[in-house]
Amino acid sequence: MMYTAAALAIMITIGLALIRALLGPTVYDRIAAVNMVGTKTVILIAVFAFLTGRSDLLDIALIYALINFIGVVAVLKLVEHGNFFTDGKSATEVEKE
Amino acid sequence: MTLEILSWVCLMLGAVLGIIGGIGMHRFPDFYSRLHAAGTTDTLCAALFLLGLGFQAGLTLASFKLFLIFAFLFFTSPTASHSLANAAVLGGLQPKLGKQ
Question: Could you tell me if residue B96 is inside a domain?
Answer without folding.
Answer: no
